[in-house]
Amino acid sequence: MIQRFRWKFIYISLASLFIVMVVTMGTLLFINYNQSQSEVSRVMTALIKNDGHLTPRNAQPAFGNQDDAINRTFLAGRYNPEAVYQYRYFSVKVNSKQKIQILNDANVYQVTSKQVKQVSKNILKLNKVEGNVVIGQNRYRYRKSKTKLGDNIIVFLNESLIFTRFWLLLRISVALSIVALIIFALILIGVSRRAIKPIVVTYNKQREFITNAGHELKTPLAIISANTEMEEMLGNDSEWLQSTKEQTERLTELINRLIAMARTGETGEVVVGKVNFSEIVKQDGQDFKSIMQKNGLHYDVKVSSNIFVKGEEHSLKEVVNILFDNACKYCDKGGQVSVSLTRGRLGKHAILRVNNTYVDGKGKDYQHFFDRFYRQDESHSSNKSGFGIGLAMARDIVEAFQGKIGVHWKNGMISFVVNLKIVK
């Protein structure tokens, strides 16, 4: 239990760090990507306005509004005339006879005139003002417009170079995130062991105390029980003697439950193996048949055969006994108890359902049903026998075998569901 809590703490911490990193890095990448898109758009606008040419003088609009302090400081940056030489672009002019004239291809590498004309022809066939084309290993953004003389002009801008910073930032972010998560995980694993050490010591002392105290209490209880039986044999039977006997048996059962719970708190003390869960449920279902009939309950058991699970036979039998006994005690008078053991949809899990009629169950707080010493009747004056630890014990056993147990209420029926992994 303590180790499960420790690993759960580590997983939650790593998940929290992962979410923070995703939000932080994602926001940074989103801003960088939008800045790159905006830069491409501004440079394309400057090229169109200047008939496919960029110079340190006419390129200033490509760097945003320099009168805006925020834009100048954080977004586009302060205008540097030399920056225009970082862009790779070319442009073509198309006259009314659809003749293509290359205006400027001195700023690109390994792009031939033949490629330029072929790409331009393909773009002219498309009814699109702006788009993207791939030439060689680079991706170009193009935009069509008209010159002052009425000719068509197409400008091409190499946006692969502009987005290089984005892709570099993306790769660095992913690599740093993975490294940070690994380092943080190693630190958590080391620190968490020391952090939970006081809890482990306290928990072990608590289990040891419950076990030792239980064994010590058994001796005087055995003497009281023997004395009570002797009084009965001597003919001194009375309602007070009978009450003493019942309470002695009740206290003995409570001590046994507490000791069993302390022993099943950790998987280290339970030998886990392959267990025929079908036989356990079938046998216990048969054993409880007479009890159900005695209480006037309608009882139905359906068990799929040869379902083997990972667990320990006596512990799983205890889980089934607890659920059957709970259904019998808390079922409405003349109600119905139904039990089923089936395979899950994918055939990888065994599903045990124990249902009983419980008309007054609407609105109950089922989240605390598996808490130790929790009783639905908080005054503990209920006429139902029990100590509020049976379901807690069942949960500890099921979780020790890496299974799940839950409870829900619907249409007047309360259902306890146990989910265990099937083994071949």
Strand-helix topology:
Layout: H1 2-49, H2 69-75, E1 89-94, E2 100-104, H3 113-125, E3 130-135, E4 138-146, E5 152-158, H4 159-162, H5 164-195, H6 197-233, H7 239-263, E6 273-276, H8 277-287, H9 289-294, E7 298-303, E8 308-311, H10 313-330, E9 336-343, E10 349-357, H11 390-400, E11 404-410, E12 413-421
Parallel strand pairs: 7-9
Antiparallel strand pairs: 1-2, 1-5, 3-4, 4-5, 6-8, 9-10, 10-12, 11-12
Protein name: histidine kinase
Subcellular location: Membrane
Keywords: Kinase, Membrane, Phosphoprotein, Transferase, Transmembrane, Transmembrane helix, Two-component regulatory system
Task: Walk me through the structure.
The chain has helices spanning 2-49, 69-75, 113-125, 159-162, 164-195, 197-233, 239-263, 277-287, 289-294, 313-330, 390-400; strands at residues 89-94, 100-104, 130-135, 138-146, 152-158, 273-276, 298-303, 308-311, 336-343, 349-357, 404-410, 413-421. It has 3 domains: 2-166, Beta-Lactamase (2-Layer Sandwich); 197-263, Helix Hairpins; 271-421, Histidine kinase-like ATPase, C-terminal domain (Heat Shock Protein 90). Strands 2-1-5-4-3 form a 5-stranded antiparallel sheet, with helices on both faces. A 5-stranded mixed sheet has the order 7-9-10-12-11. Residues 377-387 have low confidence and may be disordered. It has 424 residues and is α+β, with helices and mostly antiparallel strands. Helix 1 (2-49) runs antiparallel to helix 5 and helix 8 packs parallel to helix 10 (313-330). The radius of gyration is 39 Å and the shape is elongated. It contains 11 helices and 12 strands. It starts with a helix and ends with a strand. Residues 212-424 form the Histidine kinase domain.
